[in-house]
Structure formats: C-alpha cells, structure tokens
Amino acid sequence: MRTIPLAPTLTETISLRAAENGSSVAYRFLPDGENESHALTFAELERGVRGLAARLARHTSPGDRAIILAPDADAFIRAFLACQYAGVIAVPVYPPMPFETRRNSDTLRAITRDCAPTTVIYAAPEEYRELILARTPELAAPYWLDATEPGDDGDGFEPVPVSPDDLSFLQYTSGSTALPKGVMISHRALMHQEELLRQVGRFSTDSVVVSWLPLFHDMGLIGNVLAALYNGCQAVLMPPPAFVQRPVRWLRAISRYRATISGGPNFAYELSVRRIPPEDRAGLDLSSLVLAFNGAEPVRAATLDAFTHAYRPYGLGEQVLYPCYGLAELTLMATGSPIGTGSVVRSIRLDALQEGRLVHGGDHRAVGSGRAMEGHRKLAIVDPETSLRLPEGRVGEIWVAGPDMADGYWNRPQESEQTFGARIADTGEGPFLRTGDLGVLDDGELFVVGRLKDLVIVGGRNHYPQDIEATVESAHPLVRRGCVVAFGSTAQGAERLVVVAEIKPVSTAGELTAIRRALGSAVAAAHGAQVGELLLTEAGTIPKTSSGKLQRRACAAAWERGELTPASAREAEAVR
Prior knowledge:
This protein is of the alpha/beta class. The chain has 16 helices and 26 strands.
C-alpha cells in the first residue's frame, strides 16, 4: 500500500484524472433520488471546472475566499473544484433554506463576517439570490458568480500553482451555541486523508460510491465526492431530502448501480429499517457492498442488529457494516477497522462507565469505532484536567494526531493553539488535536462515549446523554426515534437532568401523562437518575444539522430561552 498521496494537491488531482481516466464516468446525478438526469466523465468535469475557474479568476486573487451556495450537486462540485484551479479558498456552506429560518440565516451571516469572501458562487434562480440578500446583507458586497451561466471552455487558462501547504477550503463548524469556526483544510491534509480512505476502503477505479449526504459537509464532500475523484471511480449522488423522504431510494440506488461503498450516520440505518416496509424491499440486491460506513453520531448496537437482520436476505454481507469515528478538525476520519472485520460490540457495565471505567460483563452494549491506523495516526486517551495519558479501560478525552490534521481555525490563533497544540503533560509528546470527545480504549479498540461538554453529572455520577436518549426512545411507542435530547441544567443551582422528546400526535391528556410516567421510570431504572424536567414536544422541534445529527447545545439553549413549545393533546394523524 502507498503511504503517500497520489498527487500533492487537489488541483493536480483534477488534471491527473482528466488525463488518465478522461472517458470514465466520474459522477451520476439522481436529483429525485430515482431517475438519473445526467452523468459527467472526468474529461467533461475538467472542462467545466476549467471554464468556471477562468471566470472566477477574473474577479479574485489567489488566497481569496469564495462562498459556495449551490443546492444542485453538479454545480456545487464544479464550483468547489473551480476554486482549486483558481487558487481560491472554497467556503462550502449550507444554503439557508427554508429562508424564513432565522438560525440558518444567522449562521450564514456569521460565516460571511468571519471569512470575508470576495465572491459568492451560486446556482439557483435570481429570486434565490434576492431572498438570501434580504436576510444576509453582508453578502451584498462580494461579486456573485452564477455557476449555471454558459461560459467559455477555459482554453488558455492555466490552473494557479498551489503548494501542499496552501489552503484548499474552510470547513465551518455548525455553530449551534457559539459562532461557527472555519477549520482550515490544506491540500496536504486533504490528500493524506484521501490516501487513508483509499487504503481503508480498498478503493480502485472499479469502485462505485452511492451517497445522499450533504456535499458541503466533510463526510459527503471528502468521503464521497472527492474520494471518487482521487481514486478515479464513480459516485452516484442524490440530494439529502430524496433519502429522508423515501429511504428506500438509497438502497435501490446501491442495488441498481452495484455500489461497493456507501454509508451515513446511524439514523440512516435506523430509518432504513423503520420506514422501508418489507414490500418495498422486494428486488433489492445489496451483495455488491464491500463497506457501509456508520459515523458522525453515536453508533447503536441495536441499529446494527436490526439493519443486518432486515437486509441479510437481500445480500447484505455479515462484515460490511463499518462503524468509524472522525471530525472536521482531522479533515474527516480518525479511526476505523480493517475492512471486512465487521463491527466490534462489547457488553459492559453501565454503572462502571458512569464512574469512568470500562468493565466487561454488563448488559449495556457499546459499539467500537475502530482503531488508530498504524503508521498514519497517533491516538491517546487523556485526563482533560491534568493532560496526562490514561491507561486502557479508563474514560478520558480523545486526543489524535496525523498528517491530515487541520491547520487550525481561521483567524482564531488562540483557540487554534488550545485545540490543535495539545501535549501530554509529563512527556511533552505532541502536538495533538483535542477532540472534545470522551472515549475509552479496550484492547486497542476505541469506544466513543460522548462529548466532554455534553456530560451530565447528577448525584456525583457521570451520565452520557446518548445512553439516556436511547433509553427514552425505547420507553414508549409514541416517542419519535432519533428525536430525543438529554442535557444538564444548573439554572436552579445543582445540576438537573433535562430531557426533551418529540412525540407523535396524541388525542388525550391521559396519553401525555402515561408517556411522561413511562419515560421517567425508564430513565430511573436504567441509569439511576431522576429526570429533573421532561418536555414533550411536537415533531420538528429539536434542532438538527443538515446531516441529521442532534444539536444538544442548541436545544438546551432554546429550552433555557423558553422557545420550545410543549406538545398538546389533539386529534391528528400519526407522524411516521
């Protein structure tokens, strides 16, 4: 296996693929999740990128920032890669849709003020631009470049030379309770990550990726779109709403295009069990899958079991499901397992975990997120207070390092030093990235147990919110799956456990009372903790990221401000 990237920069990778794999299909687009609108070969892609880069270069200088607002996958990919050819730092962001959502507009405004773009590359009707400008006046100053307008083919334009240490793009954090931060991803870090993914996933030019993940986000962008470009294989892309509306579209695309690699957060597998009835599974053939990654949120053993049981009759391999762990500050992937080894699940004692220890023999099932890849990654579990390394079996903060570590946060030198410059106190080993995540090692396997800032301490015991959330989800059939948030509050002095749960419509006050009792009893029995406040809300209340991850701190902030409306008893159709 290679230990160095195929090319030193993404810019050179684009040209390399056009030269070596020009006639091969790079991307296929399924705008409705079912019907293919068109496909692009690597040569066609490069011509489109070159033409757009020539236009972009007329309005920018190398090192400028360009915000990309393009819901359309084809336009987004060309815009992102055109930035590489023009030597411009790409800033992919989530289009603030729906426009009336203040939080989305506030995030875009904060990103704009932080990165000071000279250009906005967009691909949408003119009214789209007008609506954005009405809510984001900061974007009135940059030049707006329509990626869909016909232009020249870029003949005569030469890509701007860049070095591996130059920035490729800024990956902004979600900014759920604080201002979003721009993670600086260099060409060096990006290419090392792509080479790691190549080795882990055993990519070849015959590989086929199927994805519904948001393209502006690191998992969708780096793990799917750029992985296909780097390896000279094809990616089949559908928009996230197409999957969420009908999850079977994802599995049908895997079956139809004989995908070898696909995946998403845990909730994607949950939806694929719960919202695809047996009659819709007829004709599926998942036997082509070599790797189905599961990352970006806590991986649940029950979900892995249910998905395997549901789709084994349709060709799903026993060792295909691939739990992993990563974060934007490390470009994407931090830990994983050798391909084909399957999931690692341990039965452990929850009471010991609450005390900061992993002890075998209990009835709590924890899923491993893989290992530090030898020769590529350093990983340590560290006491967050003393910065001393902890032994296996002890819970601490996850610290990681590797050649794909980001360069820091844009225009935030102090925060960058604190997060990316950590060292083990007694040895000076480092620098490490402080992830802010809590984890524990067991025979080299990493088990991620929660976020340091999300930890709830009640009665002197540590409680990890995702464990409480899983208990609440299963406590009553009217609780919506994947729509429960647990957090701590000190608003009344001592820390209390607060649970916010979305429920399906109910018709009587008695049903609400029954749900509350069931949830409180379940948490007390499973975790030995009393719920200080339980808020039942209607569907769509709890904030999530565009990829479906719960935003606990944003939910807690909304609860503290009194912005969450309690569910009421009313006659209504059930929410599926």
